[in-house]
Queue: 2 jobs
Job 1
Amino acid sequence: MKPLSQCLFSAAGELPYGQKYYHISYTFEISKEYKVLEVLLEYEPEKRTKPPKDLEKEVREAARTEIFREDPQTISDLINLCPLKNLINLAIKGPDGWRGEDHKFLCRREICLAEEGSTPCFSNGKNLPGQYELVLHVYAVFTDSLRYRVEVRGL
Amino acid sequence: MKQIRWVNAQLHNHTVHSDGKATVPEMVEALANRGAELIALTDHNSVSGHPQLLPACREKGVHGLRGIEVTTFYGHVLGLGVKEYIDWRGYSPECPEKICRDIRKLGGLAGLAHPIRIGYPAVTGCAWLYHISDYDAFDYIEILNTSDFQFCRNDLAIELWINRLRAGNTHLAAVSGLDYHARPWHGKETVTWLGMDSGIADPESAALDAIRSQRAIVCKDSLIRIEVRDSYRNRQLPGSRFSGTAQELLLDTAGKENLTVVLWDQNGSQILGTAKPSMPLPRIEQFLVVALYRGVPDVLNLEAISNPFFPDCTRGGNHPVCNN
């Protein structure tokens, strides 16, 4: 039987359309060592279903200034490439340093931190008591708004 | 005298420890099967795959090189040799040099990844949006990134590198990056052939030394040897600083025919002609970069490009010798 886990920290928030290049940091204390820490990040919606009105303008500007292209085929290809998926990464720091960062762009992340078998992107190690930090790296919000939730549980 | 061995290197690769699809052993196997002899692991903001890299490489009889791709909102910087996570929140668009300093503090080499690439809203974070005040902060530039031919302007990346050499940043090495993510479209794109010093026992240190010394030739696949014979009859490798003039270009095209040779130096570029094993060189000003193209000199036809040779250096360097 899986032992009951204890909620050690939780937070939630909402971000507006157009939010990008933004860091959100949460710090919290853990009073004892846990064999396993489970960290959950989830946000919704995952993506925009209809392109925003200014997408073509933004793509055209990016193509012009970043890859020096303005031809219609390139612009069209780029617009088709745009997934319009909201993009947030999660980094975790423990009392003995950074455990890693999850560069995956999935709208739900369940991360396990342990001495062995931590989720890829995060280093194995003891979950020592002390101060922890969760950092949300907000790359882009393409939807009208984005609601997120983070939770840390100890086992 | 240094004994140099040319090594097929893939210097920019991702796994499930960031947004790649392959595990570390799968990535190593896939690249070793393509012929790679030295495989770097450069996951986005992650070093958690490092403990698996060297054992996986040993299993396949190749060398591993641990690193990271510092992946920020405003562009990516490769840190070959870095074995720690780097907190990138403090980097501002005005000072990318700080990223390089942090990489160097951790014993790594700082490489400008895919310098001309599209970003937001198509591929957020991938474009280079930083303002570089001091290119000396960087150790190398990824002149060919082959993860996305369509939206990554390798032609302009090569031009950027040549222009920086002309501006005096002559230490900047040029490498290629497969940017492996185990995606369906990976082909057999390009290889960085590193001239590794056999006298350096640790392969990771030897690879970093080769890049730092600009002892590298970027090739489409098999090694095309590009050397220069100087006025003292010494054979010089890319990256060499030597006191004589550059007299003769020595090419071994690995059986490839009808390659067009293009030269760049401080003052401009010129087509030297169709590649032959030995070709007299014109007067070279300050540095010489040699490229070979299949027919028309266009980046899509590029077969090989050397790192710079530096003739007429008042302080002559040593003369490495190849042993493969």
Job 2
Amino acid sequence: MKLLMIAFKNLKRRKLRSLFTIGGVAIAVAVLVSLLGFSAGYKKALTNDIDKMGYQVLVTAKGCPYEAATLMLKGGGGLRYMEQDVYNGIVSDERIDKATPQLIHTVYDPDRLDGRGGFALYVGIMKSHLELKPWTKFKSGKWFTKDDADEVIMGFEAAELEQRSVGDKIFIPGIEKILTVVGIFERTGTQDDGVIFLPLKSAQQLFDLKDKISGIGIKLKNIEELGQFEEDMYEVPGTQVISMAQVKGTFLNLVSSAKVLVTSVAIIAVFVAAIGVVNTILMSVFERTQEIGVMKAIGASKLDIFRLIWMETILVCTLGGIAGNIGALLGGSIVERVVKGLLPYAPEGQIVLITPTALLTSLIGAIILGLVAGIYPAYRASSMRPIEAIRSGE
Amino acid sequence: MVKVIEASGVKKHYQRGPETVRALDGVDFGISSGEMAAIVGPSGSGKTTLMNLISCLDSPTSGMLEIAGQDVTGFSESQLIEIRRKNIGFIFQRPHLIPTLTARENVELPFIFSKQKMNGDVISQKLDVVGLRGRNHIQVRMLSGGDMQRVAIARALVLNPKVLIADEPTARFSTRVRIGMTELFRQLVRSGLAVFIATHDLDLAGSCDRMIHLQDGVIVPKEMSSLYA
């Protein structure tokens, strides 16, 4: 039997109290793990979303650039429109490698989501859409038969949600139009999975937006020309240029502000947990005053007693750290859902990415917490005078 | 018979505010191996102070105190711990065992603290000596008060000390347990151990080879002790 075993058995004396203390540490560690996971996950998911848009520059009608970027990223109503001539004018620019126009429109469908109602997102596209997103493959079916066909291609999740397959007819409520499903894309892991695509021209006719587009996605031949290209685009009236790198930076900055708040909460949680640990161990030391006196009388040195009490504290924090890690792993999906609901823009994919590094960092943090929190109770215990300690309860 | 404890002119004075408390004021006595001595006296006579000094839990203000031939006066705390580990076994009014450990694990504790290699045979033998054969692996909280005190005695004996110091070892037990414990002490003395007992129990004190009467910090003849007044 070693000191560590004695320390462990001591914790079992007051099981409930030990469990509550371990629970306090576990909550602090779980918050910390989730926070670290969010830091890593959000950036990765956002980068993935933006990279998978396929373009580096977005040209939209003048307005709030970040609102426009968000709507282009996740879809939604309220976008301003610009003339398609803008596209026709810039598409021949030699600096452009690929460019594609898009018209985004939402339609409320009262039958959607099992009768609860919801918005369906329609995006009018041209074939150049596939050139900018070469990873987009057909799960079934094929491209539209002509530029103004009454046909749609559904994103993977949109088709799954509505249980559609190629050849099915879909009805657009309010517009009273029936369209035929000619293709279904494979899953891309982006917002495109939830979209219903139709030919740009058809979309313009259907939604009464003749010669209008929502934006143009552009990929340059040489990314270093981005600055000059943006400047030149400012000359085009009624438009604005948004660099996707800027959008990414802005989102990350916005999330960083929220992270400061959450980090403050995590620090408070860790601080409260530390006080809880000190309190529990100190209480346990006072309850065992006589026992500690006897240990000294039978040969324990100050260092032995210090180590024993320190070990108990480290054990509490290590067990709390392990429980917190397990809690973060098991509760990760719940945290993910909650965080996604709170964010103004939540990228597709996992945004709370719990990595081995986050788990290890938090566990080491918990052990350090134990090392620090244990110093005072261990010092108090080791400083007890044996006979006074033994006599204290008699 | 080898002298295990020898005290000569041992004083212990405390300062309590402006007043000097003379807890021990020049005590001379000795105990040899194979001897069982009792120290008796009323409360406040200095028994506990004397026990603290001879068990190396405290240092005398002046005088000479030898434990197993070593003058421990002026020893540092770590030196006193070493003397304690090698020479002294300690038992108290209450067993003060660790309730979450088994009888055997409690007896192992001195080995852990002295950083000595655990000797399972010695532990079993000491548990046998105190009459706890077959109850090694019982959690001590399941034992009776008398058996707990036996575990405490086994714990005190496990490093083969030269002297067993007992502070009111029978005060909390029934007559039956007291008789059993007195017999156990006698048995240990026969094996060559020195046993030094502080007690109010005159039956236990009467069974010792020698009684030392302490009053107001000094050793007095039996007839002067207020215990018999």
